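Listing S7. Sequence submitted for prediction.
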Amino acid sequence: MTTHSTTQTGDGLITVAPKNEGDQSALVVICHGLGDTAEGFADVAEQMATQLPHVKFILPTAPTQPVTMNMGMPMPSWYDIVGLDERSNEQCDGLDESESVVKKILQNEHDTLGLPYSRMVLAGFSQGAALSLYTGLQLEHKLAGILALSGYVPRAQQLKITDGLQDTPILHCHGEADPMVNHGMAVRSKEHITSIGATSYTLKSYPGLSHSVSPEELADAMEFLEEILPADDSFKIKLKDPLEMSVKELKAAVRKAGISHKALGFMEKSEFIRLLQDHRSA
């Protein structure tokens, strides 16, 4: 029996959440790489969810925009990439907007569900890993950690670690045979971030691995997440009372719970309220 349900919105955002919303006590946001969408990592999130039943996974999709390095071809991208040399990597037009998108996801979980930032992780692959590093180290609140797969630090010279976030746990996994984001960029990223104050940055290298994700790497990522986001019922989210929900909110909650089939033919708001109340009490 699956513990999570997967939903997708019109803007491409995918959520893999516990069927019983009240079981959630942690959050992982996964940002995909250049040219990909949230669907590219949905299976990874669903696989991780089987071992982390208390975690909600949110996977946003980047806006489609021209990418200079790819001859101006429009594609999903968190920011424009002019080149991978250090000078070009200081530009990153669109990075601020994408940073705001991620911040809003975190803030929404905190404001609406009462989940503390210390129970949240930013994760990503390639360009998504770069976004996670850049965002996670400059927040106003300390996260449980940052997971970067095949990534690098963008705007290195402009990055300033927020005071108090220096010991944020960072796991950076990178293939030694990566032709896209070469391993040297990972080494330099760690060197730079530690030089400006980070004290808990681990770089794990994988011989023979190209610009992709391996089972060994995912196993290390899972071990990291289990360590920094252990199950803890004291952090379970505060659910909104069904009696206080709008019809739209009730339908969304029923859908997330995977019990939409039980609501077929419902016409009255009271029916949705009772169904959700019964589901939660069970």
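Caption to Listing S7: primary sequence and predicted structure tokens for the chain studied. The chain has a mean pLDDT of 94. The radius of gyration is 20 Å.
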